[in-house]
Amino acid sequence: MPRTLRNATASDCAGRDPLATPEDVAAYLGVPVKTLYQWRHRRTGPQAHKVGRHLRYRWQEVDAWLDAQTSYGLTA
Hints:
Blueprint: H1 10-13, E1 19-20, H2 22-29, H3 33-42, E2 48-51, E3 54-58, H4 59-71
Antiparallel strand pairs: 1-3, 2-3
Helix pairs in contact: 2-3
């Protein structure tokens, strides 16, 4: 049965579910899932949220974190 998104706009999820699993984010960033857990422990990676006993990421926060990481060290 396909999942449906309620109250989500196209700009909110850009073709993706609004919440991502650690596996989704790891694949998107090109890092192992274990790295995400290490970043979470060190509080250096994208913010993760507990949904029940599961970790989930908001795509907007992952993209914002990624933008913040890539803005450092760039020279014109």
